[in-house]
Every structure is written in structure tokens, then in C-alpha cells.
Amino acid sequence: MPENEWVRIIPLGGLGEIGMNMFVIETADDMIVIDAGLMFPEEEMLGIDLVIPDFSYLLQHRDKVRGLILTHGHEDHTGSLPFLLKELPIPVYGTPLSLGLAAEKIREQDVRADLRAIAPRERFSLGGLRVECMRVCHSIPDGVGVALETPAGLVVHAGDFKFDPTPVDGKLTDYHKFAELGDRGVLVLLSDSTNAMRPGFTPSERTVGQALEEVFRTVRRRIIVACFASHIHRIQQILEVAARMGRKVAIHGKSMIANTRIAADLGHLRIPPDVLVRLDDLRHLSPAETVIIATGSQGEPLSAIARMSAGEHKQIEITPGDTVIFSARVIPGNEQAIARTINQLFRRGAEVITEEFAPVHVSGHPCQEELKLMLNLTRPKFFVPIHGEYRHRHHHARLATAVGIDPAHICLAENGDILEFTPEKRDIVGKVTGGRVFVDGKGVGDVGDAILRERQHLARDGMVMVVVGLHHQTRAIVVGPEIVSRGFVHLQDQEAFFNAANHLVKELLAGCPEEERGDASILKEKIKVALRKFVHKAFDRRPMILPIVIDVWGAEP
After folding, report:
1. Which residue in the list 231, 365, 392, 395 is annotated as catalytic?
2. Which of 438, 508, 325 is nearest to 41 (CA)?
3. Of the listed 35, 54, 174, 192, which one is catalytic?
4. Active site residue 192
5. Residues 433-462: pLDDT tens digits?
6. Which of these, 81, 102, 135, 238, has the minimum number of CB atoms within 10 Å of its CB?
7. Can you say whether residue 185 is alpha, beta or left, with left for phi > 0 and alpha for psi between -120 and 50 degrees?
8. Is 381 contained in some domain?
9. SS (H, E, C) 230-261
10. What's the pLDDT tens digit per position in 394-430?
11. Which of 351, 320, 338, 438 is nearest to 20 (CA)?
């Protein structure tokens, strides 16, 4: 085998979670990145705004990185771009809509970017690698898969896809191109595992339009539809149904308005004449004439739907007879937030429709028969299930075995694994620094697992703070001890607890040897241990104990 006849695939995100998708394709001379996504925080990630991949490996090899290719415009594939480009200003390739949506986020972060538009079936070079993209159907227009010609063979990343026979925009997944790649010989296929546990085929997006039309025909008052701001095909169908029913539509939510504008400017959204109105204009119309498309399908606390459900929206008040349609799937982890929002909407007299009761949502990802079709079209020698938790990828591996892929050629990898492929074999040859980086406000990576554990501790058990001031020379107590608690003890028990804790600290300090009284760190540790034992014995609780010992200068009182 020639010395450089190998290719490495390094997942930095997207294996073990839904979201945060990012893959590195590396050869001896070049490195290409596919997608740079984010993940929204899980429930236990208190105070965290976003979760992004660890870019350390790319920064360590910045001279080899030739560019980044976006498969489509969803945030779980584009959301970490601004953070990456701040550190590594590389060219970004994508279809016009993907770049348009990404550019909006990049501008918000005040980052400069070199964005280069590509088209399906267009071939271009990145370093020594030849790249070609294939059109795929998904829940957002302008999606692509990516094929790379490497020294070891052809690597195909299928992107987020489904085989929709009747797509809203009429643009089919490129069956012929995937089959042509299979005829050329695919060394490695990376394919989406999100729906690998669902049998059959994913229904066409057009079935949602039919379901929405049925709902619109029966509703006599205002209709509010909650969906993802990036679901341009869904927005298209809502606009068309509303226009046929003689209703006016208001778009609500910052991201919803921005995405609608970008998609319309690029020709991916066709707005029927005279159907769009401003939110303020709705007060001049009968509720039976109006539709609102809004953000908040996941119960996000600050979203339009959540504020309406809580009665905190400045312009829209939910009234009996309103119908709210949740036209989106439930992202794992958001179940409680969505249930809370729906309960509040019902309390205000609204009717709520979800996919449990009507087909108002279909997935943008392939189910089992489509996954097998992709495997049969491309016929890869090696297969890497991607995009999903381990259980999703495990079931995808089973499907691959069922269509004839050698189980020894299937790689169930983890984020950070270095997968090396040659024309003859595959192996995991090492691991790179990987994992999740937390974004908290303006801080990126400065909140780690230790701080999250502290936040969870505070949220679960509360806090007790002890402040004591000692004279800088005599080490006698001149301030306090003052005890403050938050989220720990009930108001009626506070006085007794404070008195007992105050007495305990005084006795502890009085009994300390002279050499220990001069060392604040020793005193703080002693106070922490003594109070922890006292609190656990008295209340069977474990609040965070925070002792503060200060030196007081001047004469003793």
C-alpha cells in the first residue's frame, strides 16, 4: 500500500447526542470539516445557553484545514460556526440558503466569514481533495450530501436526508447520483441514524399540508401554528392553506421573521399575494380571518408561544376558541416544557393540536426502509452510522448487516475517535481531544463539569454562608459569625438554625490552637466540616457550605 493511501474520519460531535454535528475528514496533506453544529442544553445543564463541539484538534492543525462544508442550514449543523470562525477563519462552502441562514448567526456574533456558494453536482477542490455535493430532501430546502475523493477511496456523507417522493418544492433526493457513486465504489458511507428505530418510510411533507387544510376548514376562530423557524417547507404550506381559506398570516418571532425573509429572497419561499400582514394589523381583523406562525414549538421559556400561554405576551392574548397547532416533533429533553405550555394553553380556553392527534408533523429524517435504500444505492465497503445516540446507531448498524454489509466493516464510533480507512481495512488508531464545550453568556468554555456540579448542588440543596471577621492581631472575633442561607431552611426554622450555627462556629473558633487561628484557609475548612456534620444531623440535608473569614484591622471594639 502506498504510504499516503489512507483517510481518517474524526467525529467531533453528533455521535452520542442529537445535535452538535461535526466531522473532520483528514488525509496526509489536507483536512476538511463537514458541518459545525450546536446542541441546546439538557435539563441538568443549569445556566448554560448552548453546547458546542471542542475545536482543539482543528486549532492544533490549522495549517491543514482547507475549508468547511455545510450540508444544510439547521442549527445542529451550523450553530457553532461563529465560535469556530473566531478561532479559525477558514472558507465556508454551502448552498445559498444554508449560507444565508448561517450568515445571519455569524453577523449576530460580529464575525467575518468567507462564504462560498455551491450547487448540487458541482465539483470543486479543497486542497488535494475533490468534492461533489448531491441534492437531498430534508425538512429544510437546499440540503446536500457530500462526496469526497480521497487517496484511499470515495467517502460519502449522506447529510440529513429522506426519500420524499412528493417534496413541497419538487426537488427530489438525487437517487441517480447516489447510485452513480455506488457504481464508482464507495469506501465509507456516513449516514443519519435519527429514525433508525422507526419502521417503514417517513411520510411525505405534503401530508402535513393536507392535515393542516383539514384543521383550517373546521376551525372558526384564530389559528396559531408553532413550528421551527427553519422549516421553510412547513411555512410554505401554512401560507398556501391560509391563502386558500381567505385568512391573513402574521409571522412572529425574530428567527422566524429572519428565516422567512432570507428564504423568500432566495426563491425558496413563495409568498401568496396579499396574505402576509404585520402582527399589529391583526387587531383590525376578525379572529376567523387570521393565522399566526410563531416560534416556541419546544416550549422555550422566552418564545412567543410560551409567553402567550403564560398571559405575558404584549400583543397576543389567548382567548377561548383559539386553536394552537404544534407542528413539530418533541426534541428529547423538552417534554416537560412543552407539556407545561400546552397545559397553560388549555387553561386559557385554547384547543391544542399535536402530532399525537393529527398528522400535523412529519420527520425530515429517513426511517428504516429509506436507510436500507441508501445503503443499497451506495453499497459502501465500510459504514459509519452517525447523527444519534448509541441506541439509534446500534439499530442502524443492524439494518446495514441486514442488507449485506460485513459486521466487521461497521464502525460504531464515539466523538473524538480517529477512524482510519485504507482500501483494505479500517481501525480506530487513537483519540483526539473532544467533548462538549459550554457557552454561558459571553463565556465559551469557562464553565466546566465542576461548575455544573456546583450549580446542581445549589439548585438541589441550597446554600449556607458563614461570615466571620477576626482581629488581624489578636484573632478575636470582631464581626459575626453572621449566617445567611438560600434555598435551604424554611423561614419558620431560620432563627433556631441561625442561633445554633452561630454558637457552633463561636465554640469552634474558641477551641482552635493559636497557630490555626492565623490561617484563614484552615479555619474555613474547619467551619465547613463542622457545619456540614451539624446540618446533616439536624436536617438530613447537604447544602453547599460557604465560609468567609476576613481580617479586620484597627482596634478591637
Report:
1. 365
2. 438
3. 192
4. yes
5. 877 776 655 545 444 455 545 555 455 667
6. 135
7. left
8. yes
9. CCHHHHHHHHHHHHHCCCEEEEECHHHHHHHH
10. 999 999 999 999 999 999 999 999 999 999 999 999 9
11. 438
